[in-house]
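Any chance you could type out some protein's one-letter sequence along with its backbone structure tokens so I can compare the two?
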Amino acid sequence: MKNKKGLLLALAGLLIALCVVFEYGMPSDAAAKAYFVDVNTNGEAIQKNHFSGYKYTLKAYKKDGSSENITFYSPDKLAKNKKFKIHVANNQFVANYKQVKKLPSTIQYYAEQ
């Protein structure tokens, strides 16, 4: 009886540990792509189905310095003339964003070209 209780407790502990590792070890936006953007427009206010937010079409830079024009949707209005690091999911919605003071040096070089 004691061995069965010990075994069950050990398995429960292992299961909890695995849940913690998978929950916090893998970020929720693992499928999202990271970009740096310099917001130079106010964005277009949109209302679609259950989404209310802003649509942006901007030149976005990847960490390696390559750029592409992307369209993305943000639930929050991004401040004009500010720089952001954004994570855009496959459905073009911003998973998260963070304002940055300046672009990384490799990206800044290409942005000024």
Notes: The chain has two helices and six strands. Strands lie at 33-39, 44-48, 51-61, 67-74, 82-88, 94-100. Residues 33-112 form a domain with the OB fold (Dihydrolipoamide Acetyltransferase, E2P) fold (CATH 2.40.50.480). The mean pLDDT is 84.
